[in-house]
Automatic annotation (TrEMBL), chain A:
Transmembrane in keyword set: yes
Keyword Membrane: yes
Provenance organism: Nocardioides zeae
Name used for this protein in its record: Tripartite tricarboxylate transporter permease
UniProt keyword annotations, A-Z: Membrane, Transmembrane, Transmembrane helix
Domain DUF112 span(s) in chain numbering: 20-438
Upper classification of the organism: Bacteria, Bacillati, Actinomycetota, Actinomycetes, Propionibacteriales
Stretches that traverse the bilayer: 20-49, 109-132, 144-162, 169-186, 206-224, 315-336, 356-377, 389-407, 413-442, 469-488
UniProtKB/TrEMBL annotation, chain B:
Protein name, UniProt field: Universal stress protein
Naturally occurring in which organism (per UniProt): Nocardioides zeae
InterPro entries (alphabetical): Rossmann-like_a/b/a_fold, Universal_stress_UspA, UspA
Family: Belongs to the universal stress protein A family.
Pfam families: Usp (PF00582)
Domain of life: Bacteria
Domain UspA: 4-130
Amino acid sequence: MESLSLLADGLATAVTPENLMWAAIGVLLGTFVGVLPGIGPAMAVALLLPVTFGLEPTQAFIMFAGIYYGGMYGGSTTSILLNTPGESASVMTALEGNKMAKKGRAAQALATAAIGSFIAGTIGTMLVVFFAPALAGVAVKIGAPSYLAIMLMAMVLVTSVLGSSRLRGFIALFIGLTIGLVGLDMNTGQPRLSFDQPLLADRLDIVVVAVGIFALGEALWVAAHLRRRPLSVIPVGRPWMGRDDWGRSWKPWLRGTALGFPFGAVPAGGAETPTFLSYVLEKRLAKKGHEFGSGAIEGVAGPEAANNASAAGTFVPLLALGLPVTATATIMLAALQGYGIQPGPQLMTEHPDLVWTLLASLLIGNTLLLVLNLPLAPLWAKLLRIPRPYLYAGILFFASLGAYTANQQPFDLFLLLVFGLLGLAMRRFGLPVLPLILGVILGPLMETKMREALAISGGDPAGLVDEPLAVVVYAVIVLLVVVPLVLARVRPRLTPTEAAADAPAPADQSDKESVR
Amino acid sequence: MTTETVLIAYTPDDFGHAALEHGIVEARRRSARIVAVNATRGDALVDERFADDGEVTALERDLAASGIDHEVHRVMAPDVADAVLEAAEKAGATVIVVGLRRRSPVGKLVLGSVAQRVLLGADVPVLAVKPA
């Protein structure tokens, strides 16, 4: 129960008026970016990175936590009212949610999404409170070779499990790893991939890379597709639920939470799979099964809860291992590094104040979301009328400002443009952004661990596999890569729907199948 | 065989309905055909002045009920006023019907007005109407 008293300390820190203000700003900003498709919490956090370097790390992370949860919530609003999922995790919400809204039950759909998110987020955060310290306690004893293996596994999982195409995922990952190499080698001081440019040898600033890929890339992509037929938004009043809706919602909320959290907590993160599984599960369990496909409240409640529980779950690997599994968490990790804090298992013991205040502020942010968003839903829907030129002019302004102020180096603006074009090209060719940003940020960390492991063994590559845990993890990686290939050959005609409906069985298996 | 054309700048709201109502009356008086134009800049996710499929069906039904020869155009263009004027020219409109919004002088300064720019830019008479 030590965790609880630490959490109480964290709460005490988090409820100061100033910190509450940062939480409120974060939540509002997060919902804002979540509601607008194309702009997500990852972009928001990246744009805010330069701004937050002037803040205390605790305050910055309180705000980031708010943005993270707010983004989730905002995405569900858009899915329900517009049938345009702002992010992949909201796709399942859109299925039933939009049909509910069309039947005039938008208020109930929004309410079950909001309350379900709150419940799942709260339970999820409490689970993080118990799991993360335990995991970190184990993880500090892990040696460099095993740590390297685990990082590698996270990369392979994120790259091959999420997204539509494995090949595209790995292309993005390797581009990211290459970008991560640019600059001075930390160990030997040799410049790499710097093309004799002293400014490149200085290593790329993560703000410039992230803002270029997320903000500039998206802005260029939108500029290339500026005029699109407007969609019709379903008008909605203040969300509310009747007794019947509560009765039908609470079980899916809890089941969604139970499904979502483990998927977030293993370093294969991402909310796509659990939301999908939750949808399928609710569809099977629903007594009013016939209502599925025409707006069943269970189909909104379950996936939305799974979505938020998995978002909470991603804090387990982030805080306990220093392994981010979502784009937003990756940028948050970069922010940690920006403060000179080394992410990893020692984070919990070296910066307990930061960790526990962050966890406490997740709870507070979640509550604020519920309080703010239920009454504000009609207002959020109005945001969708903002003409894109105004919106992206603002984003470009902050992007350039952020990229420049990071080092006050005009060359960074040129780099920003280069990464913006890269971001545009990635969107054009359907390359996922997450593996790239993971490669940029985790690549150097991974290299450090590898160098460490090799230094211990005196440069003998066998040193990379001399820990049992490392060997096990490498075996898992091989399985992860090989099994789907074999399955694809053996059962070529299995569609994702059938695969997941067949077996909610072992998590890792259904995981891979549902993505194929 | 009619030669005259009444062009209605349609929006799926009170102003558009007023324009439609007066446009139909005007078309009867002149025994003209009707071209209804609904334009959007298409640069926002949601534009409530752009008729969705259901609203266009309703518009078609209203026009068909009037028994007047009619066309409905949905246009996406960088500028809504220009789109209306261009459609008027193309259709050889003899009169343009627009719905006027009540807006304070300050509001007009900030937001501009499609109706105002149609009034200023049109080569043919413009019938500006207000919802009852």
